[in-house]
Amino acid sequence: MTTILKTEGLRKVYHLGNFPRNIPVHALNDVNLNIESDEPVIISVVGESGSGKTTLAKVILRLVEPTSGKVTVQDRVVVGERGKGKPEKTEFLSTVQPIFQNPFEAFSRYRTVDSYLYETATRVKKLNKLGAIDAVEEALASVGLEYKDVRGKYPNQFSGGELQRVSIARALIPRPGIIVADEPVSMIDASRRMIIINLFLSLKQEYRTSILYITHDLATAYYISDYIAVMNHGSIVEFGKARQVLSDPQHAYTRLLLDSIPTTKKKWEREKE
Ligand code: ADP
Ligand code: MG
């Protein structure tokens, strides 16, 4: 069994204001998660705004240093534990790739988007020029885009949904074991969201990539996940197989989340019949 993602005793305390009057904010409060599988999986982290989801994503992506704790990805310790053995940046990025909430913030408006893909192919995947172009074409095709339609274009020449697909293509180039996607559809037109959600499902099969899907939307979480972790105030209050968590929630907070989405709840009840 491969440890796809494991967090142990993860804590992050931010301090608001200045000493001695600063107020500690416990963004992550002892987060323990362990997903072991030989097959790629989609794990959703759901929770309301401020529950610590983005902080968790950033710690896993090594963009934020945790106050304490440890993260293991694909059997390798990537965060925590002083000393040697942790992958350096390029190696890390070939294992873990990010997708952010706002694709327009992920790309500079002054740079063509294909230059990012090309850079990932040459720097992270270490391909030569021709190999890189092939990899870029292939990755774009996987997200339903053609290289000729993307080449030489700047971010503002795309819709949010298209640009998010470009950032997914970029994330796929190193063939990462896991993609961490923080609210990847919350800024996308509602009518286009399912394209991306369905894309995640097919990439799990085609690229054998696991996905940590972070969202406040239980309906899409239920639709694509193998596992669901429910976060509240910096802690995981419930974790399990998606169907089990949502059909038989143990924690009051999970029930509360479910009750706040009447339409999807009806769908689950229909399925139980
Ligand atoms: P979510 O993504 O679930 O909305 P966040 O991880 O963004 O949650 O935030 C969790 C908590 O940490 C919130 O109370 C937020 O205000 C606080 N927080 C996040 N980032 C910072 C920061 N850079 N400085 C201080 N507090 C922060
Ligand atoms: Mg967030």
UniProtKB/TrEMBL annotation:
What are the record keywords, sorted?
A: ATP-binding, Nucleotide-binding, Transport
Keyword Iron-sulfur carried by entry: no
InterPro entries cross-referenced by the UniProt entry: AAA+_ATPase (IPR003593), ABC_transporter-like_ATP-bd (IPR003439), ABC_transporter-like_CS (IPR017871), Oligopep_ABC_C (IPR013563), P-loop_NTPase (IPR027417)
Q: Which residues form the ABC transporter domain?
A: 5-258
Q: Which domain of life is it from?
A: Bacteria
Q: Enumerate the Gene Ontology biological process terms.
A: peptide transport
Drop me one GO molecular function for this one. Answer: ATP hydrolysis activity
Pfam families to which the protein is assigned, alphabetical: ABC_tran, oligo_HPY
Q: Which SMART domains match?
A: AAA
What SUPFAM superfamilies does the database record attribute to this sequence? P-loop containing nucleoside triphosphate hydrolases
Signal peptide location? none
The record's PANTHER family line, in alphabetical order, gives: ABC-TYPE DIPEPTIDE/OLIGOPEPTIDE TRANSPORT SYSTEM, ATPASE COMPONENT (PTHR43230), ABC-TYPE DIPEPTIDE_OLIGOPEPTIDE TRANSPORT SYSTEM, ATPASE COMPONENT (PTHR43230:SF3)
User: What is the protein's given name?
Assistant: ABC transporter ATP-binding protein
